[in-house]
Amino acid sequence: DTPTGASLRREGQRWAQHVLEGPYSWIMSAIYILATVLAGYTPLSAALRAARPSMLEVPATAGAEASESDAYVALRYVVAIIDSIIYAFLPWWTTVLLRLVQR
């Protein structure tokens, strides 16, 4: 094994990572979307639900059920907007993650 051959193999591995970055990113994005759609929750919406939403409920009055407070409804919309941004830029996020892992 010559130094030139070893150098060429290192560069070949680096080039292969670069060439396969797109398909790997697409697969990672598809897995994330599949998992969140099947689960019915994104990580942020699951965290919001786990953050004791009962503290944000409007107490029930006579003959009526408890309802969500305006603050909780607004917070749900904020989380939905952030989730939409995550989905929109998911290929970029997964590419950055892939590059960090491959270092």
UniProtKB/TrEMBL annotation:
The chain crosses the membrane at residues 24-44, 74-93. It comes from the Eukaryota. Keywords: Membrane, Transmembrane, Transmembrane helix. It comes from Favella ehrenbergii. The keyword Transmembrane applies. This is Uncharacterized protein.
